[in-house]
Structure formats: structure tokens, C-alpha cells
Design a protein that fits this description.
2 copies of one chain form a homodimer. The first copy, chain A, has about 220 residues and is mostly helical. Chain A folds into 2 domains: about 55 residues, Homeodomain-like (Arc Repressor Mutant, subunit A, Orthogonal Bundle); about 120 residues, no CATH class. The first copy, chain A, contains 10 helices and no strands. The longest helix of chain A is centred in the first third of the chain and has 25 residues. At the A-B interface, helix 6, helix 7, helix 8, helix 9 and helix 10 of A face helix 6, helix 7, helix 8, helix 9 and helix 10 of B. Chain A binds a DNA duplex (30 and 30 nucleotides) through helix 3.
Chain lengths: ~220, ~220
DNA sequence: CAGCATGTTAAACGCTTGTTCAATCCCGTG
DNA sequence: CACGGGATTGAACAAGCGTTTAACATGCTG
């Protein structure tokens, strides 16, 4: 093909368009991105975008599906591999946030897209959240079974609290980076964030930090 | 004026336009709302909207300023009235969420607009978040001074954790309503949410609930 | 080698957008 | 009572939007 990307790139032109759309959608939101901008970013004409995806909305839906699939794959690895390591205050894991940081490259647009999906993706967002909520409920159940957590008065609400706290890092990532000087989804950032959150989970707000770094108790 | 709103309404036409814009912006986002739609909702012509606010962006900025002003007023009442009642695990207050529920009418578009401001309002959102972060830091300081909380290893991060947890309810309101069956910003919803969160804050995830079902103050 | 499906482009189309403009209406003031 | 000025409208405008179309190049298949 003469029209294929110049330098070596094993992705199909179709995939390149999809990736650029994903990036731009995550950055500015689908409404603020034009077909011509996507085409420009992918190095093709506007007509080709429509030719491949039927319409702009068709492209958006395909990106939705793609992101969801990647996310599910991530979740699969997480819950499937070495038993439940999710949300376990004992292990170094701080759940979803850490999962993303570990499974995705540094500047990946995926977190941003998922954020937008969660906040403005009418139906897809609802499905996604329900999925996460069920996961959170099961995780809490496991923690209770293991004696690591109490179900509380209202286990559904407690699971929701845990999920919300987890997602908050995600949704507020940029602002947190701004005021703390560290991206909470980066390795350094999680090293600051996780102990503080797990400290509260372990003994409440009033308990002094326990797992020491400097002070030998 | 013959053109004034039919039924009694003490608001200026200008104010009506501003309010309708606020509502629509909060619902769908400024990019997805047209000047004609705003005009239609306010019962005026598109030209008049521009005449009053210069441009669509001018209108958006004015709504921004208006929302920020109302929010600041709310914050002022909160921090100023009976000393610090904010984030105090002893009182029934669950901070920002409760403040909104108490100071705003039921279907107010303000929470939705603030959410959007926080998540997509480039500079305004940053300023808003910094403001809230400073408030959270001061509140944590007071809790520490009162012996109700420990500063933790990294007080800035601990304050950020508290703020993020608080804002999460806000940002995920619709989804939480969906899975829990109760709006967490309503009176009923807070009655479910607050005890669970405060329970964790009081003794961590593993502690059994302490204050009984209806706590006799 | 003919032929056909596919990838691709440039140009054009129709529609919606934000904005401008001239005209009209009404009130307050001199 | 004239009149000037703000409020208000409907029509018009240019620009940008998503999409359609006709044409062309390319690689595969019989």
C-alpha cells in the first residue's frame, strides 16, 4: 500500500485512527473534537474516517468498546492471577489505581477516557460503574471472610465508600498532582498515597501510623 | 415592559437567561448546549442572549463567576458560623456533601455545575480545588489540635485523602444513587452514607460499628 | 491480463453554529 | 409630547460541522 504510514508501524490505518481518536477524546471530550482533527492527527483525510467507522458516533462507540475491552482484560488479570490481591490492606496494593499504574504505559490516554466514560458516558458509564461496584462488594466480602474487615452496618454502602475512595484518586488525578506535586497514579505518588489511605483503613483517623518507615515504634 | 416574563417573576430577563444557562450547562456541558437552546429555555431570542452577555463564552464566564460566588457564600457560612463544624466526626456533619444538601434546594443545578467546573474547568477548576484543599488542610489541623485525628506520616496527603473521599460522593452522585437506591446527597442518603464513612474514620475498616443504630446524641 | 473489491482523497453539500444587523417596541425624562 | 435609549426580535451572515460523492490507486483473484 502506498498510502500506509511512512515509518514502520504494524498498526492498521484503521487502528491508527482509533488510537488518535481515543487520545483526543480523552483529552478534550468527543464533543470538542472534530472529525477533521482526528483525521489530521492520524495523517489521513476526513472522508476515510467516516469510511472506516460509518460516522463520528460510530467511531466513538468503537473507541468505547475498545477501551472497555482493554479494561476488562486488565481486571481479568487482576482478579484471576494469584487469587485476590485487590484492595488487600496487607499487600502493597491500593486497588484500581495501582492496577492502572502497573498495567498501562506512562502517558496512556486510557485513564482519562475511562474517567470521561464514568462521568459522562450515559449508559456505558452506568454499566462500568455497576461492574466496579459488584467487584467492590465481592472484595469486601472476601476481606470480611479473611477477618481483615468488618462488614459495617450497611455492607452495600461500605463497599460503595471503598469504591468511591478508590475512584476519587482517579477522577481527581490532575488536581491532586497539582497540589501534592506528585501524580498519585505514578509509582512515587502511590508510595505517598497508599500508606496514608491504608493507615486510615487500618486504624481510623486517630491512630498513629503503624507500619514504620523511619520510627521503630 | 411588555416583553417581561408573563407570570410574576422578580428576576431580570438577564437573570433568567443566566439561570437557564446554568441549568443546561450543568446538565449537558457548555459545548453541547447551543445559544438557541438557552434562548428557547429562557423564552427569548438568540440575539438577546448575545446582546446581554456579549458572546456565548461571555455567558459561560458569567455563569462561572456566579456559581463560584454562591459557593463561596456557602463556604463562608460554613466556616464562619458556630466555629468549625466541618468534617467533625463527632457532629453529624459529613463535610461538603452535607453542606450542599443543607444549603441548596432539592433539584439545584449547582452541584452538577461545580462538578463540571472541577473536572473540566481548566483554570477555574484548579483554583476551586486549591481552595478546597487548603480548607481540608486547615480542617485536619484543627482535628489534630482537638485530638480527634492524627496528622499521619504525610499531613498534606492525609488532607488530600479526606478531601478526595469527600468529593467522590459528589462526583459519583448519580452512579451511587443508581446502585444504592438512595441519593447520597439527600437527607436519607446521608443518613446511610455518613455513619459508614465516619465508622471507618473512627476505627478503621476492621472495627465493628460503635454508635448504635439511631445514636441518641 | 481483466476485473473487482478495498483504501484513499479532494471537493462539495446541507445543516447548524455563534454572531451581526436593522428595525421595532416601550419606558423614562426633559 | 417629543424623543432618545435600552430591551427585544427576526432575518441574514460567514464559518465550521458531519457526511456524501465521484474519482483514482492499489492489490488480489480468476
Amino acid at each position: 500500500m502506498l498510502y500506509m504510514r511512512s515509518t514502520q508501524d504494524d498498526r492498521t490505518t484503521r487502528a491508527v485512527i482509533r488510537d488518535e481518536a481515543l487520545r483526543l477524546f480523552a483529552e478534550r471530550g468527543p464533543e470538542s473534537v472534530t472529525v477533521r482533527q482526528i483525521a489530521g492527527a492520524a495523517g489521513v483525510s476526513a472522508g476515510l474516517v467516516v469510511h472506516h467507522f460509518g460516522s463520528k458516533d460510530g467511531l466513538r462507540q468503537e473507541v468505547d468498546q475498545y477501551v472497555l475491552a482493554v479494561f476488562e482484560a486488565m481486571l481479568g488479570e487482576l482478579t484471576g492471577e494469584g487469587g485476590q490481591e485487590l484492595l488487600d490492606p496487607g499487600a502493597g496494593s491500593a486497588s484500581l489505581s495501582e492496577a492502572f499504574a502497573r498495567h498501562l504505559p506512562a502517558g496512556s490516554p486510557l485513564p482519562g477516557y475511562l474517567r470521561r466514560l464514568l462521568l459522562t458516558g450515559a449508559d456505558t458509564g452506568r454499566v462500568l460503574f455497576r461492574r466496579l461496584f459488584e467487584l467492590s462488594r465481592r472484595t469486601l466480602d472476601e476481606l470480611v471472610a479473611a477477618g481483615t474487615a468488618d462488614p459495617g452496618r450497611d455492607p452495600a454502602v461500605r463497599a460503595a465508600v471503598l469504591l468511591a475512595n478508590d475512584l476519587a484518586v482517579f477522577l481527581l488525578r490532575d488536581h491532586l498532582t497539582d497540589v501534592l506535586g506528585t501524580d498519585p497514579l505514578s509509582v512515587d505518588g502511590m508510595a505517598r498515597w497508599a500508606p496514608e489511605l491504608l493507615g486510615v483503613y487500618a486504624g481510623g483517623l486517630n491512630a498513629a501510623p503503624q507500619g514504620e518507615a523511619p520510627p521503630p515504634r
